Amino acid sequence: MSSEVTTTVGRSIEASEHPVPTASGGLASPGAILLGSLAFGIVFLLVWQFLPPALGVPSYIIPTVTDLAHEFVRMAQRENLLVHIFSTVTIATLGFVIGSLLGAAMGYVLGMSVFIEKVLSPYILGLQIAPKVAFAPLFIMWLGYNAWPKLLVTILVVFFPIMVNVLQSMKTVDRDLINLARAYSMSRLQIFWKIEVPASMPALMAGLRIGATLAVIGVTVGELVGGNTGLGYLITFGEGQANTAMVFNAIVLLTLIGIVLYGAVAMIEARVLHYIPRAMR
Amino acid sequence: MLRTVSVLDLIGVTKRFAAPDRVSTLTAIERVSLEVRAGEFVAVVGPSGCGKSTILNLVAGLDRPSEGRILLNSIPVEGPNPTVGFMLQKDLLLPWRSIVHNVEFGLEARAISRAERRQRALRELERCRLHDFAQSYPYQLSGGMRQRAALARTLAIEPAIVLLDEPFSALDAQTKLILQKSFAGTIAASGITTLLITHDLMEAVIMSDRILVMSERPGRIIEEIPVDLPDRDNPMARISAPRAREYVDHLLASLHLQEKAA
Predict the structure, then answer these.
(1) By C-alpha distance, which of A45, A69, A221, A247 is closest to A149?
(2) Which end of chain A is more exposed for a tag (fewer CB within 10 A), N or C?
C-alpha cells in the first residue's frame, strides 16, 4: 500500500520535472517564431496581390502590391518624394524632441510642487482629454500655411503622455529612499537629482515610447490639414487625384518613420535602463 | 572607561500623531527613556505597533518628539543628522547605481573628494566582504548580499550610532542566520554603537548586550534585560547556548505572549 503511494508520488514528480511540450502550450524557439512571422508577411502580401483582382475589385479601390511598387517609383521620380519624406521626418523628430523636453520639464516642476500640481490638475486633465490634433486648423489660422502649425501639433501631442508619466513617477517615488537621502543631510536639489530623476527614468522612457508613436500622428494631421509638403500632404493630394496607390504608399512610409522613431527610443531605453534585468523591462 | 560614555539618550520622550479622524491624537510612544553607551549593542523588542519604528525616526531626526529630549553625544537632535546611520528591512539600494556607487551615496552630501569617497566605499565593501561585487548592480545580488551592501553604505559615513530596523526580517531563516553572524562580526570589529529594533526575540538575545522590552501602544519601556552571554560577535555560537533559550522564555513571559496565544 505504502509502496504504491510512493511510486505514484515519484512518478508525478518526474512528470512535472519534464513537461511534455504540447502543440499549443510549449514555447517555440526564437528562430521558429521569426520564420513564422516572415511566412505570415509573405502570405499576407500574396493575398493582397492576388485576391482583390480575383474578386474583381478594381485597382483604384485596392491597388495590388506591384501597383504600389510602380507608384512608389513614379513618386520618387515625379513627386519629389524625398523632399516630402525629409520634411515629415524633420518635423516629427523635432516635435518629438521639443515635446519630450517640455513634457518632462513640466512633469518634474509639477512633481516638485504639490501645491501647483493640485491647483492645475483639473486643467491638465481637461487638456489631456481634449483631442490635440483638433487644434491643427486653429494653428493654421494663427500661423499660416507653413511648418509651424505642424510642429506645434506634434509638440502638443507628444507633450502630455510624457508629462503625465513623469509626474506620476515623481508622486510614487519610494518615501523611504527620500528619507534615506534626508537622513544623509541631502538638500532638496540633491534629492531631486540623485533620487527623483533617476527613479523616474522607467516612466519617462515609457512616455517617450508613447510619444514616438504619437509624433507621427501629430505631424500627419498637421500635413493633412494644411501645407504643401510632407507625406500627409501627399495623402490629400493623392486623394484629390483618386490615386489610391499614392495614399497607400504614403501610409506605409509614415508607418516606417514611426517604427524607426520608436526603435530609436527603444535603443536609448535599453542603454538608460541597463540596470533593470531584461526579463522585467 | 569608554563604555560609560553614552552616545544616545532619550529622556522622557513622547510622540503623538494625529489620528486618521484628524480630531483625536494617537500616542505612539510615551515617556520613553533609554541610554545607549559607546560600543554597546542594544535591542528593542515589543509587540507590533508599539512604536519601535517611531523611536528610529525620532533618533534619525526625520521626526520631532512631542515631549522630551533626544541627545546624540550629548547634543540635542534637531533634524537629520549625519552621525546617524540607519537601515531598514528594505535595503534601499538605488537600482541604477553600482554597489560601490551605492556605498558612496551617503558621503555625497559631504565635502569629500571623489577619490576619497571611492576609497572609503571600497574599504567598507572589503569589510563587508563584497569587494568582488563593487561594480555589480543591485539586481545581480542576493537578498543577503544586498543587506550587506546596505550595511557597508551605513558604515561608510562613520556614524556615531547605527539604527537597525528589522534588517533581517525579509530574509529566509538560513540567510538570516548567516547575515546575523556577518553583521555581528562586522559591528564588533568596528566597535560601532548599535540600536537594533526587532520583533524577533531570539535575534535580540543572540545579537545584543542589553534588551529593552516595550509594551503595546502607547509604547513604554517595561523591562530592561542585560544579556549576560559570551560571543556577542558570533550569534551562531550564542544560538546553541542553553541559556539563550532561557532569555527567550523570559521575554515570552514578559510580553505575555503565552496568555495571548491561549
Answers:
(1) A221
(2) N
